[in-house]
Amino acid sequence: MPILDCHTHILPAEIIVQRERLLVREPWFGLLYANPKNRLAMLPDLLAAMDEAGVSQAVAFGFAFVDMGLCRLANEYVLEAARSSGGCLIPFAVVNPAAGEEAIREARRCLEQGARGLGELMPDGQGFSLEGDALDGLAALARAYGAPMLLHVNEPVGHAYAGKGTQGPKEAYALAVRHPENTFLLAHWGGGLPFYELMPEVKGALSRVYYDTAASPYLYEDAIYRHVGGWAASKILFGSDFPLLTPSRCLRRVRRLGLSAEVEAQILYGNAARLLGLGDMSKGR
User: Fold this and answer.
1) Tens digit of pLDDT for each residue in 136-173?
2) Whole-prediction pTM value?
3) Domain 4-276 belongs to what topology?
4) Where are the domains of the chain?
5) In what order do the strands lie in the sheet with 149-151?
């Protein structure tokens, strides 16, 4: 069975060598990478992790910088990495929505050069709200290109950690209601939004909303796969958040749950293949 990791980060050497300076220049980057044990990764690191885990394909993107120059540099690297990967990498483009028209121009450039989606965008880190109008222009562009938007969403309760933001299920729901024709992929289980899909009026507004499992071991008990899979199995996309976590570690936790073969196949590949318009289910390395 092919496996697709829908949430991985890679950066070019030109950015990685600036790590110490960026800890100060980019506050959200500083929160996440002040600890020297937190890795930054390049294409060879991701491909090695994919090989170790038996992952066929991965969605890759850079980091949600405030500085659009850094976003462009990372986007160029991701696009070239995808071109050189033989179909193993599916590129997304990161822009800063707070940059307005500059962000829209960069997003359009990347979509025209092969990016399949926009994200991961980070509201708190980049200075915008999911409830406001900052995403309206990008949402219109994404609709025109049939591109999903991947957004960082946090659970509003529970333990504090570096990078935990204020934008949760309430704000993500408001975004989906504001843009009902857009497809959204909400990172980190959408901050718990799938549980609200048990409310009929909420479920109806979230027909084009999906959830990735990035960093799940740090956030929830593994039983979340069984619970959400009970009513929204077609909306869960496996994601590791590499290099924060390796796909092999995350896959081991999914496979030991004893999910049905059908649900496991949906989570590990089928849902992402449908979302991204991938044809051959057997395609991969």
Assistant:
1) 999 999 999 999 999 999 999 999 988 899 999 999 99
2) 0.96
3) TIM Barrel (3.20.20)
4) 4-276
5) 4-9, 57-61, 89-93, 117-121, 149-151, 184-186, 209-212, 236-237
What whole-number distance in Å separates Cα of residue 134 and Cα of residue 20? 30
User: For 214-230, how does the pLDDT look when each residue is reduced to its tens digit (9 = 90+)?
Assistant: 999 999 999 999 999 99
For the chain, give the DSSP string: ---EEEEEE---HHHHTTHHHHHHHSHHHHHHHSSTTS----HHHHHHHHHHHT--EEEEE----SSHHHHHHHHHHHHHHHHTTTTSEEEEE---GGGTHHHHHHHHHHHHTT--EEEEE-HHHHT--SSSSTTHHHHHHHHHHT--EEE----SSS---TT--S--HHHHHHHHHH-TTS-EEESGGGGGHHHHTTSHHHHHHTTTEEEE-TTHHHHS-TTHHHHHHHHHGGGEE----BTSS-HHHHHHHHHTT---HHHHHIIIIIHHHHHHT---TT---
